[in-house]
Amino acid sequence: MSRLRAALGLVALGALVALCAVSHAPIARIAESPALAGPGGLALFAIAFVAATLLMTPSTPMCIAAGLLYGPLTGTLLVVLLSFVADYLCFRVARSVGRRWAERQLERAPRLKALDGMFAAHGFRAVTLLRLSPLAPYNVLNYALGLTGVSTSSFLLGSAVGSLPWTVLFVLLGAFGGAAAAAESARHAWFLAIALAITAIVSAALARMAKRALAREMAP
Fold first, then answer.
1. What are the φ/ψ torsions at residue 149 (nearest 5 degrees)?
2. 208-219 exposure pattern, b = at least 16 Cβ within 10 A, e = fewer
3. 117 vs 120: CA distance, rounded Å
4. Are 135 and 12 a contacting pair, CB within 8 Å?
5. What pLDDT band is residue 31 in, cutting at 50, 70 and 90?
6. Looking at residues 81-97, what average pLDDT do you find?
7. FRET partner for 151 with CA separation of 20 to 30 A, picked from 48, 158, 178, 193?
8. CA–CA dist 190, 148 (Å, integer)
9. What's the domain count of the chain?
10. Which residues, in sequence order, are CB contacts of 23 under 8 Å at separation 6+?
């Protein structure tokens, strides 16, 4: 099972890197559109970003586009702000619609209930670790975490802190030469190595937290 998970992780990471490598050309053409110029273009980008997040589409191309359109500083600030709004909307939808259903399911699954308690007690740490992993599906987690007991403040703060390094990376890829640079073999290899190392560390930390939560739940 562990080998299967590792293989699936490598496949997902490869897909992420490939997406970054091939997405710059169409984004560059879109960036030249007059419709994206001025305040109207900014509003259009904001609407597209929030809609993409709500629809659970990959956020990487939007981060790259922000860097290409608005530069490294403005692009980063824009993505952070829009992510905050979009993440909150997804979280609230899941919390309002699905939390009671999730609680009923947890009553029949003690182990999952223990994990839910972990998110309730250590939400900021758990969310930050999840966001630090480039393999975790960012926009899917917005809804999934809304079903857990994590507080809204811990979710938002953990998301902001944990996703910031990857936000900066992809915005910079768009601002300085785009994602085509990531396709160069040496940089590609470094990206793979760093992503895998971070994922391994995050997975180990989350596993320890889950093990402790399960031990507390199962203790007599």
1. -90, 10
2. ebeeebbeebee
3. 5
4. yes
5. low
6. 96
7. 48
8. 34
9. 1
10. 60, 61, 64, 179
